[in-house]
Amino acid sequence: MIVRRDVFQAIADPTRRQIISRIAAESMNLNAVADAFDISRQAVSNHIKILTECGLVTIRQQGRERFCEARLEQLNEVADWVEESKKLWAGRFNALDKFLVQIQAKPTDDGTK
């Protein structure tokens, strides 16, 4: 069974977000990436695999070494989703504000506002 990975799954993990941040600044070989974290090389390899599967990282062979390079274009999907969510919630909060203003403006049973 093939599992489709998406960018949201990739950035859900804090270690993967840290890996992306490190290699976004400069490409790094796999050993340098692994050395930057206090987890096993296998765990780092698994994180890199997930990042590669969703397109946030590519592996480039240079001689005997393999370098990780960030491909941050995939994060546009996240930015688009966040923007749509902001619009949705802004609309909901504006509607709530209007509703609260209407409620506060209505006179009560004793004739006061």
Give the CATH superfamily of the largest domain. Winged helix-like DNA-binding domain superfamily/Winged helix DNA-binding domain
- Determine the mean pLDDT: 89
What is the global morphology?
rod-shaped
**Category by helix and strand content:** alpha+beta
Distance between the termini: 64 Å
Number of helices: 5
Level-1 CATH class name of the largest domain: Mainly Alpha
Q: Describe the strand arrangement of the main beta sheet, using strand numbers.
A: 1-3-2
Summarize the amount of helix as a percent range. Answer: 55-70%
Number of domains: 2
Cα gyration radius (Å): 23 Å
Order of helices and strands: HHEHHEEH
Give a verbal description of the structure.
The chain has 113 residues and is an alpha+beta fold. The protein has two domains: 7-74, Arc Repressor Mutant, subunit A (Orthogonal Bundle), CATH 1.10.10.10; 75-105. Helices cover 58% and strands 12% of the residues. The longest helix is centred in the last third of the chain and has 30 residues, at 76-105. The radius of gyration is 23 Å and the shape is rod-shaped. The mean pLDDT is 89. Residues 1-90 form the HTH arsR-type domain. InterPro entries: ArsR-like_HTH, HTH_ArsR_DNA-bd_dom, WH-like_DNA-bd_sf, WH_DNA-bd_sf. One of its GO terms (molecular function) is DNA-binding transcription factor activity. This is Transcriptional regulator.
